[in-house]
Amino acid sequence: MGCGIGRNAPLKLKIRITAILKVDAGISSNFRKQCERVNYRLKEKQAESKATTDGIVNIERRKILNEFPSEEVYQLLKKQLGKDFRKVQVE
User: Fold this and answer.
1) pTM, full prediction
2) How remote is the C-alpha of 72 from its chain's centroid?
């Protein structure tokens, strides 16, 4: 490998992190809490993304069925959902 990182580098790093976490319970506890926070936030963002995607699909379905009173209403809703979708994707 050109970078000086072998194929077993991720495995060696995992073994080293595991050893450190076993030695210091404080680090282990903090690491676990941080993982829980990250997992919780990820689930929140996945739910937001799904809700926004479902909203976009619903808007397009309603447009096809001519359920909007005007094109302006459709455009406004589509624009807002587009902003929401991009915001969730960036975070």
Assistant:
1) 0.59
2) 31
Q: What is the pLDDT of residues 58-69, one digit of tens each?
A: 999 999 999 989
Q: How many CB atoms lie within 10 A of CB 27?
A: 13
Cα–Cα distance, 86 to 91 (Å, whole number): 9
Q: Mind giving me the DSSP string for 34-47?
A: HHHHHHHHHHHHHH
Burial class (CB in 10 A: 0-12, 13-18, 19+), 81: buried
Q: Write down how long the chain is.
A: 91
As given in the structure block, the two tokens for residue 32 are 């676990």
Which amino acid is it at 34? Q
Q: Tokens standing for 23?
A: 């030695």
User: pLDDT tens digits, residue range 15-40?
Assistant: 887 787 777 777 778 888 888 999 99
